[in-house]
RNA sequence: GGUCCUGUGGCCGAGUGGCUAGGCAAAGCUCUGCAAAAGCUUCUACAGCAGUUCGAAUCUGCUCGGGACCUCCA
C-alpha cells in the first residue's frame, strides 16, 4: 500500500516516493520565539509530528528539521514590527537572547506536553547568519538581487519573467504588482513586490550583524532557505508549515532556492489548516489568542476549564489536517470525554487474552473487525486521514468492551484477530498518533493503598454496610479517583 | 478590490455520485443496594435556488453566509 499525500504545489494527491530510497528529508517552519506559544501553534507541530511518526513507522529514516526563528522577523514593515525581539527586550529589560531562551524553553516544554518527538535538527536563525549571507551573495551574483542603502532586495520582476512565481499560492504576478501597500523601504525598491533579503539596521536595533552591505539583519524568508539547504540539500522531500505561510514565505523560499540551487526546494509541500476561534483565525491582530499555558491551566475567559495537552492533541487528530478546525470549550470537552472512553477501551484491550487459536464463531463480526483494523493503514496512507481511523477505533470500542464483560463471546473473533487488534491499537494510538494517558497506575505504593481500600469496600458491601462503602467511593471521587464496580463484584479505578 | 477555500443533525466533525462515518450532548432500556462505567436502542443532516444524471451532501451555474491570503503570522 503506497502513501498518498496532498501536494499544495500541484494541488493534487500524489503517491509519495522519497528522493533517496529509505530516507526522507522534512523541513517544517518552526516558531518565532519572541512570544509565548498559543493554541494555533499546536496544530502544525502536532500535525507534522504524526506525519514524522508515520513515515518512521513505515520504515523511513527521517531527518526532520524544524528551525527556531530567534532573530525576530525583520520585515520591511513599519517600525513597530521591525525588530520584535529587540523591542520587547527593552520593555522587559532583558537581553534579547535571554528573551529568546525563555520562549524557546517554553516552546520545548509545550512540545513535550504534547508528546511531540524532537526534531532531528533544530537550527536557529542566529546560528546561521553566515549561510544566509552566502546565499544572498550568490543571488546577487546571479543577478536576481540588488543592494540599496545597505539593504538587499530580491528582484521579483526579473525572476517572474522566466520562472513560475506564485504557483504555490495561486497568485498572479500582475495582481501582486497592482497591490498597493505602504511599506517601509518601499521607495528604495525597484518594484513593490520585491522582498528583502537583508535589511540595513537602524541604530536602535540591538540584534545586528556585519555584512558586505553594512550592519543589518536577514530578511524573513532567507533563513529557512539557508537552513533547509544546509541540512537537507538542494532538493528534499517534504516542506511543511501552516497554510498562512504559503504566501509570501514559502513562495519566496522557492524563488531564493531556485536561483541559488537551481532547484525548487521541496518535492512535496504540505500545509496544515488553521485553528479558528469563533470562526476566526487565532492571531494577535484579532486579539483572540489563547496561550498554551492558559489552555493547560484553564485560566482564560473563553475556557470553562483546564484542558490537558492530550485532549488538545486528540482534538486535532479528530479532524483532517487540511480542514480548518473551530475551537470551543464544548468541542474540547467532547474530545476529552471521547479520549477517555477510547483509552479505557484500549486498556481493556491490552488485558484481553487471545487464548488458543480458534476460528471465529461469529463470522460477520470477525469480518467487520478485520475490515476496521485493516482500514487503519489504508486511511493513514490516504493523506493522513487520522479522523477516520479514530472513527474505526470507536466502532471497535463496543466490541472490546463487549468481550470484556461477556456480552460478546470470547471466541466470537479469532485469537489471531484479537492479537492483530491489540497490535494495531498500540501502533496507531501510541506510536503514530503519539497519544498517552496519564495515570497513576505505575505507582506501586498507590496501588497497594487502593487495593486496601477496595478490600475494605468489598467487605462492607458484603455486610451491606453501604455507609462505609459509599464513604470510600465518595472520598476517592473528591480526590479525583474514580472507582467502578464491575459486574462480577470486582472493582477497578482510575484517576 | 484581487486570488483561493468553505457552508453537513443541539454542538464538533468524516465523507472518493448510489450502501448516507464517528464523537459529544439528549431520551429510553439492561446491569446495579445506589452511583459510575459499560452494553442495547432512539434522534438521519447536508445554506438556498436551478441544472447535469436513472440517481447528488458529493458535479455545474447563480444567490446568500463564513473564512484564509494579498501585511508579522502556525
Structural class: alpha/beta
Cα Rg: 27 Å
Globular, elongated, flat, extended or rod-shaped: what is the shape?
Answer: elongated
Q: Can you list the strand order of the major beta sheet?
A: 4-3-9-10
Q: N- to C-terminal separation? A: 40 Å
List keywords for this structure.
Isoleucyl-tRNA Synthetase, Domain 1; 495 residues; four-stranded parallel beta sheet; 15 strands; 17 helices; Rossmann fold; single chain; alpha/beta; RNA-binding
Explain what the structure shows.
There is one protein chain. By secondary structure, the chain is an alpha/beta fold. It has three domains: 4-272, Rossmann fold; 292-432, Isoleucyl-tRNA Synthetase, Domain 1 (Orthogonal Bundle), CATH 1.10.730; 444-494, no CATH class. It has helices at residues 39-57, 79-82, 84-92, 96-113, 129-141, 156-162, 173-178, 222-232, 246-261, 292-297, 309-317, 329-351, 363-381, 386-404, 415-432, 444-462, 466-478; strands spanning 4-7, 12-15, 23-28, 61-66, 145-148, 151-154, 196-200, 216-218, 236-242, 266-272, 275-277, 280-281, 325-327, 482-485, 491-494. The protein has a four-stranded parallel beta sheet, with helices on both faces. Helix 13 (363-381) runs antiparallel to helix 14 (386-404). The longest helix is centred in the C-terminal third of the chain and has 23 residues, at 329-351. Mean pLDDT is 88; it is low at 73-82. The structure holds one RNA strand of 74 nucleotides.
Amino acid at each position: 500500500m503506497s502513501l498518498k499525500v496532498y501536494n499544495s504545489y500541484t494541488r493534487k494527491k500524489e503517491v509519495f516516493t522519497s528522493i533517496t530510497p529509505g530516507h526522507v528529508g522534512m523541513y517544517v517552519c518552526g516558531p518565532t520565539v519572541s512570544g509565548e506559544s498559543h493554541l494555533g501553534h499546536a496544530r502544525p507541530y502536532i500535525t507534522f509530528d504524526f506525519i514524522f511518526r508515520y513515515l518512521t513507522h513505515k520504515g523511513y529514516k527521517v531527518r526532520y528539521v524544524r528551525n527556531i526563528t530567534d532573530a525576530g522577523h525583520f520585515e520591511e514593515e513599519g517600525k513597530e514590527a521591525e525588530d520584535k525581539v529587540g523591542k520587547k527586550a527593552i520593555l522587559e529589560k532583558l537581553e534579547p537572547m535571554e528573551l529568546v531562551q525563555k520562549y524557546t524553553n517554553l516552546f520545548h516544554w509545550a512540545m513535550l506536553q504534547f508528546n511531540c518527538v524532537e526534531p532531528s535538527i533544530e537550527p536557529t536563525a542566529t546560528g546561521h547568519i553566515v549561510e544566509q549571507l552566502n546565499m544572498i551573495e550568490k543571488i546577487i551574483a546571479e543577478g536576481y538581487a540588488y543592494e540599496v542603502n545597505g539593504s538587499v532586495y530580491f528582484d521579483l520582476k526579473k525572476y517572474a519573467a522566466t520562472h513560475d512565481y506564485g504557483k504555490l499560492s495561486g497568485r498572479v504576478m500582475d495582481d501582486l504588482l497592482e497591490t498597493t501597500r505602504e511599506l517601509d523601504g518601499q521607495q528604495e525598491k525597484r518594484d513593490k513586490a520585491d522582498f528583502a533579503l537583508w535589511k540595513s539596521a537602524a541604530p536602535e536595533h540591538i540584534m545586528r550583524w556585519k555584512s558586505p552591505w553594512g550592519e543589518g539583519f536577514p530578511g524573513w524568508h532567507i533563513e529557512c532557505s539557508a537552513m533547509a539547504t544546509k541540512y537537507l540539500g538542494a532538493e528534499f522531500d517534504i516542506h511543511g508549515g501552516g497554510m498562512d505561510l504559503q504566501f509570501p514565505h514559502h513562495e519566496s523560499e522557492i524563488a531564493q532556492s531556485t536561483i541559488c540551487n537551481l532547484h525548487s526546494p521541496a518535492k512535496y509541500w504540505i500545509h496544515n489548516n488553521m485553528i479558528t476561534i469563533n470562526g476566526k483565525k487565532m492571531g494577535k491582530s484579532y486579539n483572540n489568542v489563547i496561550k498554551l499555558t492558559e489552555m493547560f491551566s484553564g485560566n482564560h475567559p473563553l475556557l470553562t476549564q483546564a484542558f490537558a495537552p492530550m485532549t488538545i492533541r486528540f482534538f486535532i487528530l479528530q479532524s483532517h489536517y487540511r480542514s480548518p478546525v473551530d475551537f470551543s470549550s464544548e468541542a474540547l470537552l467532547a474530545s476529552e470525554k471521547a479520549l477517555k472512553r477510547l483509552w479505557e477501551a484500549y486498556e481493556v484491550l491490552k488485558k484481553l487474552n487471545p487464548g488458543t487459536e480458534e476460528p471465529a464463531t461469529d463470522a460477520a463480526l470477525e469480518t467487520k473487525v478485520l475490515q476496521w483494523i485493516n482500514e487503519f493503514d489504508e486511511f493513514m496512507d490516504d493523506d493522513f486521514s487520522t479522523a477516520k481511523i479514530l472513527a474505526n477505533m470507536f466502532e471497535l470500542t463496543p466490541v472490546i468492551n463487549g468481550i470484556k464483560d461477556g456480552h460478546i463471546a470470547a471466541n466470537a473473533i479469532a485469537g489471531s484477530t484479537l492479537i492483530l487488534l491489540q497490535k494495531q491499537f498500540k501502533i496507531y494510538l501510541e506510536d503514530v498518533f503519539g497519544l498517552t494517558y496519564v495515570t497513576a497506575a505505575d505507582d506501586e505504593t498507590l496501588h497497594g493503598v487502593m487495593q486496601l481500600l477496595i478490600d475494605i469496600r468489598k467487605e462492607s458491601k458484603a455486610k451491606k454496610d453501604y455507609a462505609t462503602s459509599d464513604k470510600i467511593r465518595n472520598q476517592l471521587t473528591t480526590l479525583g479517583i474514580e472507582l467502578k464496580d464491575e459486574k462480577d463484584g470486582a472493582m477497578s479505578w482510575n484517576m
